Amino acid sequence: MKPAGWVACWVTLLFPMLVFAGEEGQPLDLRSLVEWGRVSGSLRAGYWSSSRSLDGRSNVATTALWLKAEPQLWHNVSLTVEGWVRNEQLFRAEETREELREAYVDVRLGRFDLRLGKQIIVWGRADRLNPTDNLTPRNVTLLESDDNNDQRVGVTGMKASYYLGGLSLTGIWLPEFIPYTIPLRQPAPPVTLRERTPGNTFGQWAMRVEQTGRAVDWSLSFFEGVDRFPDVKLGPMSPTAVAVFLTHNRIQVIGADAATTI
């Protein structure tokens, strides 16, 4: 997304904040708007001996601005918008990148919750190696932070949850596919490396039943969709060319996890 497009997304998504703040009679000065919209952010800078993209760059100086807004639109409806703008080459304009990580609406109706929009969905209780964390991708080339959660990227979808005591039943529909962003080095000729993304991802879905708040927290889950981490497949070969493809196969995953305190 270009900088102008990123800014346009923020303006479009934050416009309801101005409308609802005005309807509630709040003064539209910057301080009250920030407080009402629960706007937060961070400005980050760092120095790295090399990039994480296997592109040969060294002595990388980074700067990044992260912003998040969580206004309460009605008593049972809230909006969340989060994104960043970053630069990895001392403010050179051609190195500026941006991403809208999340932009969704939450609706709460008694025991029923509904979330619509671009969202990060985390399943499983393990920190690093988490076999049931397969619904949304990561960008493992980010340099700003070692925080595992900062690498996550949102995907457009719908999540519905029903709560009964300590149990919850969640269903998810994910029509959009975004793969992992991983470091790749192009091989030497005659080998070529290309990534193939699936054409039809409309039917991705998942379900989970989870128990929390007791001596043992646990969950059982099922996911049917496209693997966001690629597999390697050898393509056509000739004396002068060898094609290697990164492919994303359709998978079905049954998952379970549990945690307790000792």
Explain what this protein looks like in three dimensions.
The chain has 262 residues and is mainly β. It has two helices and 14 strands, in the order ααββββββββββββββ. Strands 1, 2, 3, 4, 5, 6, 7, 8, 10, 11 and 14 form an eleven-stranded antiparallel sheet that branches. The longest helix has 21 residues, at 3-23. The chain is globular and about 65 Å long.
Q: Helix fraction?
A: 10-25%
Biggest β-sheet strands, sense, barrel: 11 strands, antiparallel
Helix/strand structural class: mainly beta
Number of helices: 2
How many E strands? Answer: 14
The helix-strand sequence is HHEEEEEEEEEEEEEE
Query: Which quaternary structure do these chains form?
Result: single chain
| Gross morphology | globular
- Rg on CA atoms, Å: 21 Å
Give the DSSP E fraction (strand runs of 2 or more residues).
over 45%
> What is the residue-mean pLDDT, rounded to a whole number?
86
Gap between N and C termini, in Å? Answer: 47 Å
Low-confidence stretches: none
